UniProtKB/TrEMBL annotation:
Protein name listed in UniProt: WxL domain surface cell wall-binding
Organism placement in taxonomy: Bacteria, Bacillati, Actinomycetota, Actinomycetes, Kitasatosporales
Signal peptide: 1-25
Keywords from the UniProt entry: Signal
Length: 171
């Protein structure tokens, strides 16, 4: 009868196969480990004020108004949100230029986290119009853009400093 020899690799494999793992007895204590992933709110930050500049009747006055940021800290598996913008009529004393003479151009949207942000340029009005939608979000995310507001000043406009209120909201 011939003796067989095992290679080192085969011997190691055989040794691993016969090595028992740690024994777990039915009465060994165990610990249940839990944790909580916190969730927050859906918020929108906007500039407090913006000056578009000046121009003559019959021209357009236009400028970026500053960064607008949606912060979605809800930690959702499937997150979505919509930002709307509404403008009051612009007034200077007794003179009025309708909100519908203004446009809101979103421009480039920069995101963090997982979210698809789709911008839409609109003609402003007194009722909210969708300017950015967020979809296919997962977990926390942000979206930031710097919109440009352009006012087409009517040829018959009366001189003066005109003021309106741009209200942006997220839901």
């Amino acid at each position: 009868m011939r003796a067989r020899s095992l290679s080192v690799a085969a011997a190691a494999a055989a040794l691993v196969l016969i090595q028992p793992g740690p024994a777990v007895a039915a009465d060994d204590p165990s610990t249940t480990v839990t944790y909580t992933v916190t969730s927050g709110a859906l918020t929108l930050s906007v500039p407090a004020s913006a000056a578009l500049g000046s121009g003559a009747p019959g021209t357009q006055i236009s400028a970026p108004i500053g960064p607008v940021t949606v912060t979605d800290d809800r930690a959702l598996l499937s997150a979505s949100w919509t930002v709307t913008a509404a403008e009051t009529d612009f007034t200077s004393g007794a003179s009025t230029i309708p909100a519908t003479r203004a446009t809101y151009t979103t421009g480039t949207v920069t995101t963090t986290g997982t979210i698809t942000a789709t911008p839409t340029s609109v003609t402003l009005s007194n009722s909210g119009q969708t300017v950015v939608t967020g979809s296919a979000g997962v977990g926390d995310n942000t979206a930031t853009w710097n919109p440009t507001v352009t006012v087409s000043v009517p040829a018959g406009a009366i001189g003066g400093a005109y003021t309106g209120t741009l209200t942006q909201s997220v839901a």
